[in-house]
Write a structure and sequence with these properties.
Elements (H helix, E strand, L loop, with lengths): L3 H5 L6 H10 L5 E3 L5 H9 L6 H8 L2 E4 L4 E4 L2 E2 L2 E2 L1 H4 L15 E7 L4 E5 L10 E5 L4 E4 L4 H10 L14 H6 L5 E6 L13 E6 H15 L9
Antiparallel strand pairs: 1-2, 2-3, 3-6, 4-5, 6-7, 7-8, 8-9, 10-11
Helix pairs in contact: 2-6, 3-4
């Protein structure tokens, strides 16, 4: 078990890279501050160092929003949006035996799509970042680790990635969301009608979208999204 000081005070922290990417980003990035000492406590619960990208984000911010709020990168948490340790069910006091998770959610988008690090249970490769696509209800490996994912989220072009999941005017819909909200659409994103009919869209709590995605996937999808604790 490492102390908060050992985890937080490292020679090569990852956070300056994240700040640089955010400052140069064309993706309407916002860094949201966390609560005082919340980052240190969550870093301790995760037993990660600030030398890792995930540890750096958790230590230094509550969350990061990308693409006008379409993507929410999890940090130590902000009111309405839990932090990494809470979302993934880490105990409030760490133990010498860390929890064995099928995957760790690190970001979520407006439709409930999940970005997660494969912990060995997502069918891709341990340590690789995966995406649970709400249109196919399956996990897809992205061929990279968390640091590369963060750089791509903050600075990359997401047009092709979300080509089948966005609509004309999605930017305005995303910008109107609260930090704890996503977008409920009908026809559903997994249906053929999603691309052929007029969409009815409504801002709702992300928790509702996640619950609906899990319920739908249990009935008809090949793979489940990770639970949101």
């Amino acid at each position: 078990m490492r102390s908060i000081e050992e985890l937080a005070q490292v020679e090569n922290p990852a956070w300056p890279y994240c700040e640089l990417w955010a400052s140069q980003s064309p993706n309407a990035v916002k860094i949201l501050p966390g609560q005082a000492d919340g980052g240190k406590q969550m870093l301790y619960r995760l037993q990660m160092t600030a030398g890792s990208m995930l540890g750096g984000i958790v230590l230094n911010c509550g969350a990061i929003t990308v693409d006008h709020g379409w993507i929410k990168v999890l940090g130590s948490g902000v009111p309405g949006l839990p932090g990494v340790a809470d979302v993934n069910g880490f105990p409030s006091v760490p133990s010498e035996t860390p929890p064995q998770l099928p995957g760790m959610i690190v970001a979520i988008d407006a439709l409930g799509g999940q970005f997660a690090i494969d912990g060995g249970g997502l069918g891709v490769h341990p340590g690789e970042v995966c995406y649970w696509d709400p249109s196919t209800m399956a996990w897809v490996g992205l061929g990279a680790g968390h640091g590369a994912l963060t750089e791509w989220l903050l600075t990359g072009d997401h047009t092709d990635f979300y080509a089948d999941l966005r609509w004309d005017g999605w930017q305005d819909d995303a910008a109107a969301l609260g930090i704890a909200q996503g977008i409920s659409v009908y026809p559903f994103v997994w249906s053929q009608e999603f691309h052929t009919q007029k969409l009815f869209r409504k801002a709702v709590p992300l928790s509702e979208i996640i619950d609906l995605n899990r319920t739908t996937a249990e009935q008809m999808g090949p793979e489940l999204p990770l639970p949101w604790h």
